[in-house]
User: Fold this.
Amino acid sequence: MLIQDNISLKSYNTFGIDVQAKQFVSVSNTKQLIQVLKAHPNTKKLLLGGGSNMLLTQDIEQLVIHLNLKGKTEISKSEKHVLIEANAGENWHDFVLWSIEQGFGGLENMSLIPGNVGTSPIQNIGAYGVELKDTFISCKALNIETLQVEEFTNKDCKFGYRNSIFKNEVKGKYIILSVTFKLTNITHNLKVSYGAIKDELTQQNISNPTIKDISNAVIAIRQSKLPDPKEIGNSGSFFKNPVILKDDFNKLLKNFPNAPSYPVSETQVKVPAGWLIETAGFKGKTFGNYGVHKKQALVLVNYGGATGTDILNLSKLIQETVKRIFNINIEAEVNIL
Ligand code: EPU
Assistant:
């Protein structure tokens, strides 16, 4: 395996930020990964998957290891279910499309989410009423210290809203190598209650949707609202939707009677950050070559040539303004490096 010096990471992050990796290596199997880790025990490392959930604000001094582990295996199949193990470097959306082509259900609502299979459990990706944890059985992960492969079950991962053990207790300690999903084989458990999906299916005159129809509907909705990273640099939702106390939300309603919210618990609600940012006046705002997406205020965009610091500063300005107007803290969903 060749360790390369001074490699641009522009094509390795969906924001398209042009920073350099001092040292870069791409590994295509676990053996190679272990070799690199063994050969550089005391070097700081940055693991890179699909690069879809990171904002790079400076050149990377650490050794960048690009996880390019490909392949999927059918572990078992029964009348109703199939277990598929997909390696970490598989592109998420390609994997979703492949599973639909095989007739396997469960991932269709998560079509077109950027990133790779290996990073999907870290933030428990989700969209349109479905989260990764709904089909996740287990994942294999390499313990960076012991170089042993360990298995994490669904329960072990402590999944929450855009959250898991990999963002907390064991952060930075493991490299996810593969994920095993339990998908439906014949009878699918379709989730079409999410308003936007319902509307899209009605518009297309589909009353008995297949998993492919749902995937197509999700693709159409996402394409109408979210910019394609191949055309405009972005990393999906930049912020998480804040969870606040119901009491605080009721106070907010006095000044903003149209404020939307989703129930979370007896005492808490989730407020769409996109609404807060739009109401704060940022939707579609452009600052030279970067800004806030025109159709979805939750997404920050690089129109080409922006630096990570430009985007980071914009995100801070948005956070401060939202805090001043609504007294609500919005947290970044992307990792800032
Ligand atoms: N809204 C606005 N203005 C905007 C955007 C949103 O007012 O510019 C309000 C609207 O009231 C809308 C509500 O926010 O009804 C919710 O918007 P949407 O349904 O588009 O969902 P979201 O909360 O903005 C979340 C996820 C997305 C996921 C969608 C669909 C987070 C942080 N984001 O967005 O995930 O695709 O739901 O399920 O939870 C991602 O993580 O990268 C991502 C795109």
Q: What stands out?
A: The chain has three domains: 4-67, 72-225, 233-336. The CA atoms of residues 253 and 322 lie 15 Å apart.
